[in-house]
């Protein structure tokens, strides 16, 4: 009866089990990062509850709502819009609306499953901390929010990737209604209206299936030319980053993180900060702020592009292997292309220092360079190892956890020094030099990872 | 010339190529036939230097694919069965990228000439992500031949091509010098272009002969294929 639903679900579960068996260490880090995230949120919640700070529950509701909405859009895009396997089911006599609805059901159960898992662990941790958790009405509202976000997220994907983008307007109206009337009755009414909209959208689902916007790039003809190998690889990498609008988002994330973290560093104890946030912000030192800000920025501008240097070559790795160039040259050229994303992360330091004070300039610069190099030296070999095998989110989360631990230890070391002392200058220089040494080792390792033939084969032939 | 000695390739427990040896001579077109999963694509990928193998020796114009990998790859042009490319680059950008990686300083005229010949010139500035299978096949074909390689490996070359381009490609293959290996399911393509033919079954060579001998003995390549595979068509 639900053939497509069963097939997609079974395929996804089998893939998950197969991948987990093949790469247990990667999945261990991934699971560790997820647990760590839930634990961090739980600890924050406990601090807020103990300090009896006032909290607007709808702020939490909307945070969870938008996270699940984004996840639903991404999942629906993956399972339906860009999935070539779905064309088999769509070409059978089964109604296409039914097939698309079954795919929506997969997305729906995945989101609810994740919500049940995360909220379950969160509740357990808080209960274990002695916090009273008897608020079933809140849990119902949050669960309804997840249901609504899944419906709206899927319809966003359906209409965004089609030529009829005006069909997104009702979603905007639903969100406005939710913003103004956020009680349980209104949420149920909006869910009912969005279900009707979902069924109408599913009738037009073929408008977005395998959607591709035909783009002609006449303006870029002058930039096309034959370059040396290194320049060609750098040019290709930066062209793709540019066309995917990643560069502007790198700069935006670096500026906004710099402003936000810098502001909290300077005015974290001011009354203009909401009380719930102030209970946390006034306890943190500028060093911790600098660490958190840098960590956020490099996750986006260093880890993500470094991993994707190879992960994005999933199906095109054959091309690089076919070319008469050494693996070392490929690795070095690709890593050189990261210079652009490093430059995009520098505004973070400027804005952070503008708020926190000039005395943090040297420290912030060192922390950015150190963290960036560390992110690259960890991410490049991992990306090379899992090319074509694992999703970027999975690897990204694993690297995030590993990096958090390493940078956390480094920050503990730094706190032993006086930031104004001369010794700290030596520490900065020596740590960067050691890291550069490790970076070369990491690049060498990466080029060995992408080598096809074993040493034994090379010797014997 | 490509020579292969005692080649062994496994995918986990499945043996894809079982201790096979070949010599693909200069100035000859050799066709590789066989049922699905017989090892044709695996063989071509190994010759192209993009797939590892467990045992054996592969030489491209006397250069070992393992120890002189870069020299060997300079002499190879490879058209894969599924031409995956960079979706956000245009056809022109992609071909110039490949020309740069191959250090072909004067490839522009070659690229334009082949684009016109294969009638893809009007789409050269569109992103590859919007190309059809046949259009991608044409771009991939230009990438495989623009450096005029001595050894050309074509995996299902006419699959997805329109009849006119398919004919152009066949004429090109017949006229070219150097070594050409074609993996295909099409007996017609073998008869029209190949000098020699191998039929593989479960990673082993079941038939190795010149096409003229096959035609003389069996009447057609298709008939020979059925006989070798033990299929009885009533």
Number of strands of chain A: 0
Give me the oligomer status: heterodimer
Number of H- or I-type helical stretches of chain A: 19
Following the backbone from N to C, one meets helices and strands of chain A in this order, namely HHHHHHHHHHHHHHHHHHH
Largest interface: A-B, 40 and 43 residues
Task: Compute the average pLDDT of chain B.
Answer: 93
Strand content of chain B: 25-35%
Our count of helices of chain B gives 9
Q: Percent of residues of chain A in beta strands?
A: under 5%
Percent in helix of chain A: over 70%
Structural class of chain A: mainly alpha
Radius of gyration of chain B: 18 Å
Query: What's the story with the biggest beta sheet of chain A?
Result: none
Compute the average pLDDT of chain A: 90
Percent helix range of chain B: 25-40%
Major sheet strand order of chain B: 6-7-8-3-9-10
| Total domain count of chain A | 2
Structural class of chain B: alpha/beta
CATH class of the largest domain in chain B: Alpha Beta
Question: What letter string, H or E per element, gives the SSE order of chain B?
Answer: EEEHEEHEHHHEHEHEEHH
Give the helices and strands, then pairings.
The complex is a heterodimer of chains A (461) and B (234).
Chain A: H1 3-22, H2 24-50, H3 57-81, H4 86-90, H5 96-128, H6 136-160, H7 169-180, H8 184-203, H9 229-243, H10 246-267, H11 275-281, H12 286-311, H13 317-322, H14 327-336, H15 339-356, H16 361-385, H17 392-414, H18 422-449, H19 455-460
Helix pairs in contact in A: 1-5, 2-5, 2-17, 3-5, 3-6, 5-6, 6-8, 7-8, 9-14, 10-12, 10-15, 12-15, 12-16, 12-17, 14-18, 15-16, 16-17, 16-18
Chain B: E1 2-11, E2 14-24, E3 29-34, H1 40-48, E4 55-60, E5 63-64, H2 69-74, E6 76-79, H3 91-101, H4 107-117, H5 133-145, E7 151-155, H6 163-175, E8 179-183, H7 187-193, E9 196-201, E10 204-210, H8 211-218, H9 221-229
Parallel strand pairs in B: 3-8, 3-9, 6-7, 7-8
Antiparallel strand pairs in B: 1-2, 1-4, 4-5, 9-10
Helix pairs in contact in B: 3-5
């Amino acid at each position: 009866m639900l053939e497509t639903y069963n097939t997609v679900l079974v395929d996804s579960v089998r893939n998950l089990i197969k991948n987990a068996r093949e790469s247990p260490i990667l999945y261990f880090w991934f699971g560790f990062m997820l647990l760590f995230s839930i634990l961090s949120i739980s600890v924050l919640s406990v601090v807020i509850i103990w300090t009896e700070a006032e909290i607007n529950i709808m702020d939490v509701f909307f945070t969870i709502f938008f996270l699940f909405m984004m996840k639903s859009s991404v999942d629906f895009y993956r399972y339906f819009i860009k999935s070539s396997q779905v064309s088999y089911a769509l070409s059978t006599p089964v109604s296409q609306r039914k097939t698309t609805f079954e795919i929506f059901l997969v997305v729906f159960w995945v989101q609810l499953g994740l919500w049940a898992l995360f909220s379950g662990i969160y509740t357990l941790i808080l209960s274990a901390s002695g916090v009273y958790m008897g608020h079933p009405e809140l849990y119902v509202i949050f669960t309804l929010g997840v249901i609504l976000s899944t419906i709206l997220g899927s319809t966003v994907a359906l209409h965004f990737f089609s030529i009829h983008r005006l069909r997104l307007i009702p979603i905007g109206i639903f969100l406005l209604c939710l913003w103004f009337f956020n009680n349980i009755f209104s949420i149920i009414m909006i869910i009912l209206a969005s279900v009707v909209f979902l069924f109408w959208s599913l009738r037009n689902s073929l408008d977005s299936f395998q959607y591709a916007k035909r783009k002609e790039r006449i303006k870029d003809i002058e930039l096309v030319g034959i370059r040396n190998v290194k320049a060609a690889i750098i040019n290709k990498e930066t062209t793709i980053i540019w066309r995917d609008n990643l560069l502007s988002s790198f700069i935006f994330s670096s500026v906004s993180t710099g402003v936000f973290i810098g502001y909290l560093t300077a005015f974290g104890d001011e009354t203009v900060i909401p009380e719930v946030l102030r209970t946390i912000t006034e306890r943190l030192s500028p060093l911790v702020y600098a660490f958190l800000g840098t960590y956020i920025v490099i996750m986006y501008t260093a880890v993500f592009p470094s991993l994707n240097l190879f992960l994005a070559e999933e199906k095109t790795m054959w091309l690089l292997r076919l070319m008469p160039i050494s693996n070392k040259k490929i690795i070095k050229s690709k890593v050189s292309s990261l210079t652009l994303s490093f430059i995009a992360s520098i505004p973070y330091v400027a804005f952070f220092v503008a708020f926190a004070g000039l005395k943090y300039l040297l420290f912030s610069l060192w922390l950015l360079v150190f963290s960036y190099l560390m992110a690259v030296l960890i991410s490049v070999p991992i990306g090379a190892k899992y090319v074509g095998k694992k999703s970027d989110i999975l690897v990204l989360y694993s690297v995030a956890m590993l990096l958090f631990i390493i940078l956390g230890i480094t920050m503990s070391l730094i706190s032993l020094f006086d930031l104004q002392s001369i010794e700290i200058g030596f520490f900065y220089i020596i740590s960067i030099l050691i890291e550069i040494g490790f970076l070369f080792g990491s690049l060498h390792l990466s080029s060995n990872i992408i080598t096809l033939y074993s040493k034994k084969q090379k010797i014997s032939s | 010339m490509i020579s292969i000695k005692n080649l062994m390739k496994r995918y986990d427990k499945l043996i894809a190529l079982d201790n096979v040896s070949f010599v693909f001579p200069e100035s000859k077109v050799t066709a590789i036939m066989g049922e699905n999963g017989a090892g044709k694509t695996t063989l071509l990928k190994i010759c192209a230097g993009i797939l590892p193998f467990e045992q054996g020796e592969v030489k491209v114009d006397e250069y070992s694919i393992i120890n002189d990998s870069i020299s060997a790859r300079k002499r190879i042009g490879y058209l894969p069965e599924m031409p995956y490319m960079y979706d956000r680059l245009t056809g022109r950008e992609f071909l110039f990228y490949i020309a740069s990686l191959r250090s072909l300083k004067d490839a522009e005229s070659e690229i334009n000439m082949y684009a016109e010949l294969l009638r893809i010139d009007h789409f050269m500035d569109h992103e590859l992500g919007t190309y059809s299978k046949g259009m991608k096949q044409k771009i991939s074909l230009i990438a495989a031949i623009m450096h005029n390689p001595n050894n050309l490996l074509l995996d299902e070359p006419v699959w997805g091509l329109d009849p006119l381009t398919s004919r152009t490609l066949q004429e090109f293959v017949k006229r070219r010098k150097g070594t050409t290996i074609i993996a295909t399911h099409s007996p017609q393509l073998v008869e029209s272009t190949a000098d020699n033919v191998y039929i593989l079954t479960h990673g082993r060579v079941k038939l190795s002969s010149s096409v003229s001998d096959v035609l003389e003995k069996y009447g057609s390549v298709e008939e020979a294929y059925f006989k070798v595979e033990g299929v009885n068509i009533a």
